[in-house]
Amino acid sequence: MTDGRVARSMPASERMTSDVHKRVLVVDDDDEVRKILTAALVRHGLDVDYAYDGEQALALLREQTYAVVLLDLLMPNMDGFSVLDVLNTDSMQSPPVVLVLTGADNSVVDRLNPQRIHGLVRKPFDPQDLAALVVACSDIKRRGTFEAMALATMVSGAPLLAWLNRFGG
What we know:
Layout: E1 7-8, H1 12-17, E2 23-27, H2 31-43, E3 47-51, H3 54-63, E4 68-72, H4 80-89, E5 97-102, H5 106-109, E6 119-122, H6 127-142, H7 145-156, H8 158-168
Parallel strand pairs: 2-3, 2-4, 4-5, 5-6
Antiparallel strand pairs: 1-3
Helix pairs in contact: 2-6, 3-4
């Protein structure tokens, strides 16, 4: 989508009633990447909006709440770094999980602040694996704190339990 319009995969009336925890924003200037990701995410039962650049992404983030944002770093007009800057200064009620998508080399990736993102996915990626990760992130976001901690414990196992036990006595 290169005409500057913000694009969505479903009508606005359906988006208004869709489960916020199933809503994902794909931000990438590569039309093919957006199409592949949208198809994979929709197959996993997620509602997908997409944007061509950071400006379109911020417009959508101001009008919708997303569970997960898949954010490319290097885009025209406004890059992913600038989007992250705005996201971290905005006081969002429920900030999304941000997964950065990039094919950039390490010198670019090293500029990322790990405190500002939840994960990094290198291009090329397997669309089905990435969709499964997004589903897991949206599911964790939907859960309460205790459930999310329990799920994280199952995923990470002993290291998280040892860390939590330091505080529990």
